[in-house]
Design a protein that fits this description.
By secondary structure, the chain is of the alpha/beta class. Helices cover 51% and strands 13% of the residues. The protein has two domains: 164 residues, NAD(P)-binding Rossmann-like Domain (Rossmann fold); 120 residues, N-(1-d-carboxylethyl)-l-norvaline Dehydrogenase, domain 2. It is built from 15 helices and nine strands.
Length: 303
């Protein structure tokens, strides 16, 4: 039986299954979420309610976060958005804060510096793998920060992730996640464009997917999303609005570091179009719908 208590703040589409996996592995899990229903669900599953971000930290040996964006992390950890009981008020000397959110690398470094003043080490550890990976415990976890702190808590991360990679100092995990999202978006847009083209050219979509997934075009999107895409199934594994946010982070970082990002800029605009047209809560593979809007025709398999 694990002897460390894990705090978990942010029980969304990814965070809740991650926390449940920790309960299944025998860790005592103390949680908090802005809305109460996910916390209640985790309590019924075997977790505990920490009452507030600070309350979670006070009762935990290590605190994990899984929140939507940079301002959310700043608010929950530091109280900069009005949170009356931020995590930092419950931290104590020697603790580790692990942030699984995808946020700005520069914001990560700033927060890490502030929690260090409380004697706490922060690891930025964004995740990839979608809801399926969170449920199955097969996430890819990209970690920035002190490697010794990572080694201390590998037992926790290995419950949730299949691949755990130390990427460098504070902020390096977020940089790796930005790289991940650049490639993911390129796949989603490329596969969408190919499928709309194949449909317009009169090819059988299922046959096209099968033909190209085994060659040089083979990728995660073709294997895991294309079968749903050609049936118009865009139930979310990862919200399109989060993909849009992640691409904004990547584009801003590219600007800061002088790195050219022409493909990322295009993908950013396509995901913006999704959000502006009420598709932000669709799966990120739903960018295909934007290409269909441009083509004036849906690319679907006949039922």
């Amino acid at each position: 039986m694990p002897d460390k208590t894990v705090g978990f703040v942010g029980l969304g589409i990814m965070g809740l299954p991650m926390a449940k996996n920790l309960v299944d592995a025998g860790f005592p899990v103390v949680s908090h979420n802005r809305s109460s229903a996910p916390t209640e669900e985790l309590v019924e599953y075997g977790g505990e309610d920490g009452g507030s971000p600070a309350g979670v930290a006070e009762r935990s040996d290590v605190v994990l976060l899984c929140l939507p964006d940079s301002p959310d992390v700043e608010n929950v950890v530091l109280g900069e958005g009005g949170e009356p009981n931020p995590v930092i008020e419950g931290l104590s000397e020697g603790m580790t804060l692990v942030d699984h959110s995808t946020i700005s690398p520069t914001v990560t470094k700033t927060i890490a510096e502030q929690v260090a003043d409380a004697g706490t080490t922060m690891l930025d550890a964004p995740i990839s793998g979608g809801e399926e990976g969170a449920v199955e415990g097969t996430l890819s976890i990209m970690v920035g920060g002190d490697e010794a702190a990572l080694d201390d808590h590998r037992d926790v991360l290995e419950v949730m992730g299949e691949t755990i990679t130390h990427c460098g100092p504070s902020g390096a995990g977020q940089t790796a996640k930005a790289c991940n999202q650049i490639v993911v978006a390129a796949q989603m847009v490329g596969v969408s464009e190919a499928l709309v083209f194949a449909h317009n050219a009169g090819a059988e979509l299922e046959s096209v997917v099968e033909a190209i997934r085994g060659g040089a075009a083979g990728c995660w999107t073709l294997d895991n999303r294309a079968p749903n895409m050609i049936h118009g199934d865009f139930d979310p594994g990862f919200f399109a609005e989060y993909q849009y946010k992640d691409l904004r982070i990547a584009a801003d970082a590219g600007e800061a570091f002088g790195s050219p990002m022409p493909q990322t800029a295009l993908a950013h605009e396509l995901y913006k179009t999704m959000v502006q047209n009420g598709m932000g809560r669709d799966d990120n593979s739903g960018v295909m719908q934007v290409l269909e809007m441009m083509a004036g025709e849906d690319a679907r398999v006949d039922e």
